[in-house]
Design a protein that fits this description.
Elements: E1 2-3, H1 11-17, E2 23-27, E3 43-49, H2 52-65, E4 69-71, E5 77-79, E6 84-89, E7 97-99, E8 104-108, H3 113-122, E9 125-126, H4 138-144, E10 147-148, E11 151-152, H5 153-156, E12 157-164, E13 169-173, E14 178-180, E15 183-185, E16 189-197, E17 199-200, H6 203-220, H7 240-246, E18 253-254, E19 257-259, E20 267-269, H8 275-293, E21 302-304
Parallel strand pairs: 3-6, 4-6, 5-21
Antiparallel strand pairs: 1-4, 2-3, 7-8, 8-16, 9-17, 10-11, 12-13, 12-16, 14-15, 18-19, 19-20
The structure holds flavin-adenine dinucleotide (FAD).
């Protein structure tokens, strides 16, 4: 999420916004270390709140002090080279999971999707298999309506625990949210947990689906190099990767940012790519696809940070 600043951010205002917050607070952390594409400049301040109550404190403090807040899992974003002004929140301490009613799972928003998948498998619950291989957090998955050709977040989601920009905690039923392709319309605030309605199934049956999907990913995606997942959304009825490939753009580079030779809808970092390299490559590809195919590719990646 992004809460826009009304004024520029000074360190004193950030300090005031964070004065009662419990958690890890680090200044000037390079966000390349926190993003799967391994690009991006520093956060003014990176905060990992101790618990949900402290997420609420940050949001309230930030609102009072007029400082911007961004929450980052880091696997579907490009953080610009100048970094992010204001507070960057990382939910690494929100990692509780529990099985509630017979077929209902709860996960805090900082739980990694692969961990949630394993938890569902252990409890012999089916309904999350579509998420095999999605590396982000539960919160990011909800915000993005993450998905694959097997299904998407909205299919399993029952409700979302949320803290709004005034620091108020609430539960939102999934039926009250609007989902579309890689997008969930949420109020301003942060997802802090999610409830999933699943179905009992044999462990072997669930694992069969997840294993074959993981194998498919291994064969078709550049998983050994830093990347941020799909760069472009698939235009209706078409594959963005196939469109880019059809123009012979696999292997196209700007600096160390490269259109993967394995899957043309992935940009990989071949070593020392900067966010500027990645963004220039995106512009180049979009321009060529528009000019030669008359198709406007929409970004799936989120671009964050100071221009
Ligand atoms: C190898 C690879 C494969 C991938 N495959 C897929 C795939 O098959 N399908 C798919 O959908 N995605 C895929 N992705 C992309 C990515 O993993 C998902 O979009 C994931 O859901 C993003 O989660 P994240 O926690 O990393 O969020 P980020 O990428 O950090 O954030 C995405 C957006 O959500 C917001 N956000 C994050 N957390 C919260 C929160 N708690 N509350 C409110 N807003 C929040 C951020 O501010 C940002 O705007 C892949 C990525 C990689 C690297």
């Amino acid at each position: 999420m992004g809460i826009s600043a009304k004024e520029t951010t000074g360190k004193d205002r950030l300090l005031r916004a964070l004065q009662d917050v419990e958690g890890d607070i680090e200044w000037g952390v390079p966000l390349a270390t926190m993003t799967s594409l391994q690009v991006g400049g520093p956060a003014d301040v990176l905060v990992a709140p101790k618990d949900i109550a402290n997420v609420a404190r940050i949001l309230l403090g930030a609102r009072t002090q007029h400082v911007p807040v961004v929450v980052l899992g880091g696997t579907n974003v490009v953080v610009r080279d100048k970094g992010i002004r204001g507070i960057v929140i990382q939910l690494k301490h929100l990692t509780a999971t529990r099985k509630d009613a017979a077929e209902c799972l709860y996960a805090e928003a900082g739980v990694r999707m692969p961990v949630l998948m394993q938890y569902a498998v252990r409890h012999q619950l089916s309904g999350m298999e579509w998420a095999a291989g999605i590396p982000g957090t539960v919160g990011g998955g909800v915000a993005m309506n993450a998905g694959t050709r097997l299904g998407e977040m909205k299919d399993a989601l029952q409700s979302v625990d949320f803290v709004n920009s005034r620091g108020r905690r609430m539960r939102i039923e999934a039926s009250a949210l609007t989902f579309s392709y890689r997008k969930t319309v949420l109020p301003k605030g942060i997802v802090v947990g999610a409830w999933f309605q699943l179905k009992a199934a044999a462990r072997e049956q669930i694992e069969q689906v997840t294993k074959s999907y993981l194998q498919y990913r291994k064969e078709s995606q550049p998983l050994t190099l830093p990347n941020a997942g799909s760069v472009f959304k698939n235009p209706t009825g078409q594959s963005a990767g196939k469109l880019v490939e059809s123009l012979g753009l696999k292997g196209l580079r700007v600096g160390d940012a490269e259109i993967s030779t394995k899957h043309a809808n992935f940009i990989v970092n071949q070593g020392h790519a900067t966010a500027s390299d990645v963004l220039a490559l995106i512009r180049k590809v979009r321009g060529l696809v528009a000019k030669k195919l008359g198709i406007h590719l929409e970004l799936e990646l989120k671009i964050l940070g100071e221009r």
